[in-house]
Amino acid sequence: MKVSVLGSGSFGTALASVLADKGEDVLLWARNPEIVESVNQAHENIRYLPGMKLPEKLKATSDIQESLSGSELIVVAIPSQALGGVLREIASDLPAGVPLVSAAKGIEKGTLRLVSEIFEEELPGKFHKQLTYLSGPSFAKEIVRKIPTVVSIAAKDDEVGHHVQHCFFHKYFRTYRTQDVIGVEVGGALKNVIAIAAGVSDGLELGHNTRAAIITRGLAEISRLGVAKGADPMTFLGLAGMGDLVLTCTGDLSRNRTVGMKLGQGMKLSDIIAEMNQVAEGVDTTASAHDLAKKLGLELAITDAVFAMLYKDMEPAGVARELMSRGLKKEMPDENRGRRKSDRK
Predict the structure, then answer these.
(1) What are phi and psi of 103, to 5 degrees?
(2) Selected catalytic residue, list 22, 59, 105, 191
(3) Is a pLDDT exceeding 60 seen at residue 344?
(4) 68-79 pLDDT, tens digit each
(5) pLDDT averaged over the chain?
(6) pLDDT digits (tens, 9 = 90+) for 271-304
(7) Distance from C-alpha of 176 to C-alpha of 187, rounded to nearest angstrom
(8) What is the 3 state secondary structure string of the chain?
(9) Which domains does the chain have, with CATH numbers?
(10) Quick check: is 191 catalytic?
(11) Which of 143-150's residues contact partners 24+ apart within 8 Å by CB, and which partners?
(12) Rounded to whole angstroms, how far apart are CA atoms 251 and 142?
């Protein structure tokens, strides 16, 4: 099977590595000619995964049409803020009936579109049935190292989801499937925002209690926004919810947690971004999630706190004090209890 992977960042390269390791003919599209050369000649992504050996069957090209031509599976691993432009560029070149797998996470600034909404609005309707979304607790470096990893494949069409699930399933890469696209998308986007908050806490050396509180209340915020967008709340207890949230908030390989840690240690956001060679999706997603919550009339206290630190230059320790001094509330709203009681009748 010929597979096209669009996007040569660490995660796109890692997914390409899995598929090539399975024996598929994978062509990775990269804008950077140095990456193309390093993948083809040294079997290494010299920019994003330096020193990590990639399968020899994995090839790269800087010609996006070449990558797409004849593909039987297309993986799109483009940062969410650039995704719409790339989809508009390739819409006329996409082969009909071929599954498209999104590996992007985030909420588009300005439009406030989820990744799934970007795909559905930028691509003609004939492609919508083929759309799937991959998310879950997975660091790229560990995938390439063949560390056992489990992810979720979301697709509105269960037959397409079943097919893509089997395309990715490998001895160290296990896949589950769901039809809750919105839940998987919201979980994958907002976990990066909460990870920045967890990183700030670690940078301030606030301890394990605080981090646990951020993860738990962060999950409540993710669920609140997801349900408002139409997601199944049970999705957030799974791989694309709690699983990805815990990994991103605690793992040393998390770019978003790293941003937060450096903020907590006193660095300015501009300096943090300048020294990173990869995108931390949570920075842009924070602004989008903040605006989307206001549009939907939702209170997302942790998201608002991260927004204040990133975009209002508020001092992290002060923001933490404000979070702790908010008015006291019930953990579970009464209306939720009522729904559970009525469900039992």
Answers:
(1) -115, 15
(2) 191
(3) no
(4) 999 999 999 999
(5) 94
(6) 999 998 777 899 999 999 999 999 999 999 999 9
(7) 15
(8) CEEEEECCCHHHHHHHHHHHHCCCEEEEECCCHHHHHHHHHHCCECCCECCCCCCCCEEEECCHHHHHCCCCEEEECCCHHHHHHHHHHHHHHCCCCCCEEECCCCECCCCCCEHHHHHHHHCCHHHHHHEEEEECCCCHHHHHCCCCEEEEEECCCHHHHHHHHHHHCECCEEEEEECCHHHHHHHHHHHHHHHHHHHHHHHCCCCHHHHHHHHHHHHHHHHHHHHHCCCCHHHHHCHHHHHHHHHHHHCCCCHHHHHHHHHHCCCCHHHHHHCCCCCCHHHHHHHHHHHHHHHHCCCCHHHHHHHHHHHCCCCHHHHHHHHHCCCCCCCCCHHHHHHHHHHHC
(9) 2-179 (3.40.50.720), 182-328 (1.10.1040.10)
(10) yes
(11) 143/14, 143/15, 143/17, 143/18, 143/173, 144/13, 144/14, 144/17, 144/49, 144/52, 144/54, 145/52, 146/21, 146/172, 147/172, 148/172, 148/174, 149/173, 149/174, 150/174, 150/175, 150/176, 150/239, 150/243
(12) 11
Token digits of residue 234: 């049970």
Query: What does the block give as tokens for 65?
Result: 């049409």
Mind listing the pLDDT tens digit for each residue in 170-182?
999 999 999 999 9
- Max distance between CA atoms of the chain, in angstroms, equals 65
CB of 35 closer than 8 Å to CB of 45: yes
The per-residue pLDDT for 280 is 84
Distance CA 14, CA 20 (A): 10
Structure token pair of residue 151: 């992810």
Spatial contact of 140 and 13, defined as CB atoms under 8 Å apart: yes
Which residues does residue 76 pair with via DSSP β-bridges, in sequence order?
A: 6, 102
For residue 248, give both structure tokens.
């991103």
